[in-house]
Specification:
Blueprint (H helix, E strand, L loop, with lengths): L47 H16 L12 H10 L7 H27 L3 H19 L4
Length: 145
């Protein structure tokens, strides 16, 4: 068994490949042609990098504790009004109800800590509070005979 290869033809097909320089490449820093827009880029409000920076900035502002050295804390009334009517909530009654319920749970603790802050503001209040706590402990756990 012998195999025969097809005979070679005398005509050869050639195509000319154009030379490409860096100046002809779209998106190149030296290109005269603008880079092609990615699909959907014209409808995107911001780029992914800008969106990531905005998100990181919002997260940083959200999780940075308040400046307690220079700025006082808002009163309880403003915290309650923020929970009820704040612009951070949509106009949905269910969401506002949840915000009111969680504020009603949080506000007593916030009031307690604000009163503790007020007590620890002056040494005389700390001494008076300590004496009061000791008297209450003596009265409850060691009643008088």
């Amino acid at each position: 068994m012998t195999s025969t290869a097809p005979p070679e033809t005398a005509t050869e097909v050639t195509t000319e490949i154009p030379a490409v320089s860096e100046q002809d490449t779209p998106g190149s820093p030296v290109s005269s042609r603008p880079a092609e827009q990615p699909l959907g880029a014209e409808s995107a409000p911001v780029s992914l990098a800008d969106y990531s920076k905005q998100w990181a900035d919002k997260a940083r502002r959200h999780w940075t504790p308040p400046d307690v050295w220079d700025k006082p804390r808002p009163p309880l009334k403003s915290a309650w009004l923020w929970a009820r009517y704040g612009e951070h909530l949509p106009d949905d009654d269910a969401v506002r109800t949840v915000s009111r319920v969680t504020a009603a749970i949080r506000l007593p603790f916030k009031a307690l800590f604000l009163y503790l802050d007020w007590i620890f503001d002056r040494d005389s209040r700390v001494v008076a509070a300590a004496v009061l706590v000791l008297v209450v402990i003596q009265a409850v756990f060691h009643p008088f005979f």
